[in-house]
Amino acid sequence: MNVLRGFATTFKHILEEPVTIQYPEQSIEFQERYKGRHELHRYENGLEKCIGCALCAAACPADAIWVEAAENTDEVRFSPGERYAKTYEINMMRCIYCGYCEDACPTEAIVLGHEHRLSFTSRSEAIFTKDVLLVEAPEGTQATPQRVRPGTFDRSIPDMEDPL
Amino acid sequence: MSDTVKIYIDDKAYDVPAGMNLVDAAKMAGNDIPVFCYHPKMEPVGMCRMCLVEMGSIQKDRASGEVLLDDKGNPQIRWFPKLQTACTTNVSDGLVIRTNTPQVDQARENVVEFLLTSHPLDCPICDKGGECPLQNLTMEHGPGSSRMVYSDKLKLDKHVPLGDLIFLDEERCIQCARCIRFQDEIAGDDVLAFHERGRSLQIITNSDPGFDSYFSGNTADICPVGALTTADFRFGARPWELTEVPSICPHDAAGSNISLSMRLDRDHGGRAIIKRVMPRQNENVNEIWISDKTRFGHHFTRDEHSRLLCPLVRRGGNFNETEWKTALEYAANELQLAGGSVAAIAGSGMSNEDLWELRQLVTGLGGERLGAWPPTHAGADLVAQVGVGQGTNLGDLGKGDAVLIVASDLEEEVPIWRLRIKQAHDRGALVVVMNGRPTRMDDFASTVIHYDYSKAAGAFDLLQKEHGDTARQLTGAKNLVVIAGAEGVDLAGSRALMQAAANFLIESGHVGKPNNGLMATFPGANGMGQYYLGFTPEATQDIIANPPKVLFIAQADLLFDDPAAVSWLKQVETIIQLTLFAEEPVPGVTAALPIQSFAERDGSFVNGERRVQRFYTAQGPIGQALPAWQVLNRLGVQLGLGRSKLSASILMNEIAQSIPAFAGITYKALAHVEPQFPLVGGDDVYYGGTAYRNKGGLGVQIPAAADNGGAVTKGKVEKPAAIKASGGQLLVVPATRLYNRERVFRSSELVHPRVPDAYVAMNAADARKLGIENGDMVSISAGGSTLKVRAHVNGAAPQGAVILPRHLSDTPAPLAITAGEVSKA
Q1: Contacts of B239 in chain A (CB under 8 A)
Q2: What is the Cα–Cα distance from B702 to A34, expressed in whole angstroms?
Q3: Which end of chain B is more exposed for a tag (fewer CB within 10 A), N or C?
């Protein structure tokens, strides 16, 4: 009797679609909030969202993020406002993908993306620098630094319609 | 009990000093009343209204003085009908305040909400974010949400340079006027002001160049928001990322206590570098203020381009980079060949430990002459005799006390002393300034005496003979401090002047007591340390007159300081140079050995008030540089003169055993701290600003010989022959400028716009005679050098003399006063 019950389970599942996929030829669709590798985002005009405030580094429980800031000018502008990240590094060996950096970011610059294929063969390769993390400038815009009309981008934090 | 009163805070009784400011008194009692505009070092103004409290007083019967009781037997309290500002109240007996009632909470909430109506949401990029009074008090007392419309916030200029060093963010300013009041009340440079009224009100600077003050950086410390930021630190790091290391200002005799804010930096090879220099509280030395040179003059420590990175030795005609081992063997060999004809000249930036090892080495080799550089100021022995007494605090000087400043441009030489004496003058102290020309100190003097430079060494004779009233006022003062410089005198003249000053103090009995005695504006940080360790300017003169076979030049820029150095250095066979900088080597130098700056190692300096103060290792070493003491110790070991020593603290123990002045001084004793008032540097940055609490030690003041009842006697004043100019010559008086082109200051590029172009100040009558007009280029030949500089005919020089600031051009100006030719170039 027990044997029949066992086979019943087997036959029930035989007709189901398999859950395994042929990675890497195939891949599953990620949930929107999947926390993969970090990306530093840009505004539509190509300026970096990151303002070098280092709040991500402060929030990081693994001390994986290193930020050094510098000052923008209208001739050499990386981000809106006065401050930009001169150095931005994440040590991927330390990162625990908790997403606190994303929560702390006041400009939604750092976002944990869907890239999950991370491999490195040395310690120094595991340190992702700003040029690796920064996404491409949108089509038709200039990559940073940009030369802009004086007085156009004088605020670091974008104006908010509803601050609450 | 007469000097304390009983007050009640939140129904608890406290005994506090009578007449104290209520905010300070509450602070001492452990109750932090939040403030924005009030600062414990300044007069209250009651502008921000953050300190509102419920206030009342215990009622007494007018006739009997009995405390009136209510029905329940408690004292009757008459409350003010409205909340009162605590900062504008001084405590009196029976004062009652409540700081925790709903009304007070409501008031605080409303004040914060009001201040935030137009404050930008900048905290993530603001340099103050993390140590910001407004941020902290908003978290603590703020309403949590605002009733104001966000889009109504004013949009103003966020990058207004107030001069070259300080930037103003107009949006962030909450108009507390702390900066304006600091400049006016404390610094005495009234260069900031409010412009317009109401919502249009802004801070402006009314000087040209903008924010023309040597103390401007302090306003950024006391700014309760991020409205004022320094050009140096702007976006350098977030405050919580910094590691604080206690240190001592390496630039002047005040020995200001500082805190080096360190952080690793990618651009400097991942080394920890100084991100900013902040004041560290020492109420006896610099209170919570530092000069801008102290704050912005640190860049040389990390300047890999100008620092010497590895040892250099000369072989044949070539000057080659080499290993330490080779360089030390080479130097040791040269020293052995000298046959005892060894001497040393040490600069005033050498720490006590460095000087001790240098002394051990030179005396161990049979040398005797230990020279101090620059040889301009004599009389350190007299400061050791009758220097200001133990426990001296210039901040205590006030009514009935007197300060005499002679032959010094104090603002340019030791700015922190000038700041503190300005305040002593405001408190009612008699300040007498004697010099051959007008100086900034004249603005804060009760009496100004200008003498002829040819009589500078006899200034005290002049004071007693021709200004008897002033002399009597000085001798009759409760406390008297004399600060002597060496402007307009040569070394012999400086000795005569110092001796006369010492005699003047001994005669009137102003020695051996706190707040009485002699101070001198020795150049560099360790002028007194040089003396205590046996390095004297007289020995330097002797070395110049009879050069030895082998000469150590340690941390002294002879060629840049002294035009005559080129010629006498040629007579030295071997020069071993210990230097920070990879400058053009001194002609004939045999070995140049890289040493570490004050930021890279431990050590101690003795300041002008004879306070031994300790600085700590902050920065990683540059190149292969070693601490000077270690280089010298290794050389000694190589020569079989002693054992290898492991740390600077061991050297201090040796010094303490060998030199009586240092008896009992250990690194542990130097690190001793005590609570100081006002209590700054805690979490409550709103109270005292962002100056740091002293955790590195208050230092130990070496007693003067006159202290503890020691007998001192007057010495004979040996006045040298007056230096006179004749036959169309003029007296060339070298002067000190705070901002100059000395090597330790040259790397601080942000201050370059403030360094004056090389100039000479001339009297109008002399200029007319020579056909020179204001702004002409003139040529000055004096003391073996010829300089081409611009003439300033602006009333800054007396007739018959020209004032030639040193270290402004690449050609050295004469070391001391001399006669010279001035002509139109």
Answers
A1: none
A2: 67
A3: N
Across the interface, which of B120, B124, B150 has its CB nearest the CB of A106?
B124
Chain A neighbors of B234, CB-CB under 8 A: 71
Å from B655 to nearest chain A CA? 43
Write the residue in B122, B145, B151 that is nearest to A156 by C-beta: B122
Query: Is the model's pLDDT at A69 over the cut of 80?
Result: yes
Name the architecture of domain B380-520: 3-Layer(aba) Sandwich (3.40)
Name the CATH code of domain A22-133 (choices 3.40.50.2300, 3.30.70.100, 3.10.180.10, 3.30.70.3270): 3.30.70.3270
CATH 3.40.50.740 corresponds to the domain B312-376+527-701: yes
**pLDDT per residue as tens digits for the range B336-368:** 998 889 999 999 999 999 999 999 999 999 999
Structure tokens given for B240: 């919580």
Task: State the sign of the Cα–Cα–Cα–Cα dihedral B78, B79, B80, B81.
Answer: negative
The answer to whether residues B361 and B632 touch, using CB atoms and an 8 Å cutoff, is yes
Residues of A in contact with B124 (CB under 8 A): 51, 53, 55, 106-107, 156-157
Helix (H, G, I), strand (E, B) or coil at B820: strand
Q: Shortest CB distance from A82 goes to which of B150, B158, B265?
A: B158
Answer yes or no: are the C-beta atoms of B756 and B805 closer than 8 Å: yes
pTM of the model: 0.94
This complex has an ipTM of: 0.88
- The fold of the B4-111 domain, in CATH, is Ubiquitin-like (UB roll) (3.10.20)
Distance from C-alpha of B172 to C-alpha of B93, rounded to nearest angstrom: 40
Strands B342-346 and B370-372: parallel
Residues 20-39 of A with CB under 8 A from B: none
The Cα of B741 is separated from the nearest Cα of chain A by a number of Å equal to 27
> pLDDT by residue (tens digit) across B231-271?
999 999 999 999 999 999 999 999 999 999 999 999 998 89
Which of A57, A68, A82 is opposite residue B159, by nearest beta carbon?
Answer: A82
